Write a sequence for this structure.
């Protein structure tokens, strides 16, 4: 028998929970929730920034989607998101957890090797470029640009090299290509006519002094080629 909530306005929430179960996170975000749950606030804020920048876009590409935990935030503003990752395990898991049908699709793809076919309106890569060897960085950004329409938008988010000393041991080992505000801008300027730089501390995005930011966001608009 279905339990009846004391406050009637909450009944739908309990009914949905009982029929569909709780939301399941993927392996990466489950680890974050267990070990550093406040980091989820920072992560979701980065997705919210992308969502606000992409309002009204039809086809958006998420590069290095991982668990795709924040993709639903972007889906609140755009028609569809296609997530790619070079790790088959996380793509298989994301496909299994997807509840958005054709609005959210996935494929295994290495962006250092080739663009994604489809000519997307916008793309974003959060916490990805710092894992790309510097020797492949130019190819990585070029291939994302090659996946976009001529007036496409690319958002790259990455930890600031000036904050590296405060990173966890695991992050310090995995972050092999950290950027500064200047070097992130330079990476985008090779492919985009207009580049806008933002700084981020915790959940707050601003245009303040980039060396004092923990996180950097670069926005490239309008392809050069």
């Amino acid at each position: 028998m279905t339990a009846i909530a004391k406050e009637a306005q909450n009944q739908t929430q309990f009914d949905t929970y009982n029929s569909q179960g709780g939301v399941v996170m993927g392996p990466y975000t489950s680890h974050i929730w267990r070990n550093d749950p406040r980091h989820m606030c920072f992560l979701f804020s980065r997705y919210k920034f992308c969502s606000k920048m992409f309002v009204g876009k039809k086809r958006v590409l998420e590069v290095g989607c991982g668990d795709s935990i924040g993709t639903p935030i972007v889906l609140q503003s755009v028609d569809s998101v296609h997530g790619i990752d070079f790790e088959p395990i996380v793509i298989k898991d994301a496909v299994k957890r997807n509840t958005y049908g054709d609005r959210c699709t996935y494929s295994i793809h290495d962006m250092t090797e080739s663009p994604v076919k489809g000519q997307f309106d916008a793309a974003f890569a959060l916490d990805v470029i710092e894992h790309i060897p510097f020797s492949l960085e130019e190819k990585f950004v070029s291939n994302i640009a090659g996946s976009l329409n001529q007036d496409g938008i690319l958002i790259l988010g990455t930890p600031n090299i000036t904050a590296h000393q405060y990173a966890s041991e695991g992050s310090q080992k995995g972050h092999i290509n950290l950027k500064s505000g200047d070097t992130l801008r330079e990476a985008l300027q090779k492919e985009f006519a207009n580049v806008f730089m933002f700084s981020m501390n915790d959940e707050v995005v601003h245009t303040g002094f980039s060396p004092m930011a923990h996180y950097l966001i670069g926005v490239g608009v309008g392809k050069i080629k």
User: Anything to note?
Assistant: The beta strands are 59-63, 80-85, 104-108, 120-126, 148-159, 192-201, 204-206, 215-223. The longest strand covers residues 148-159.
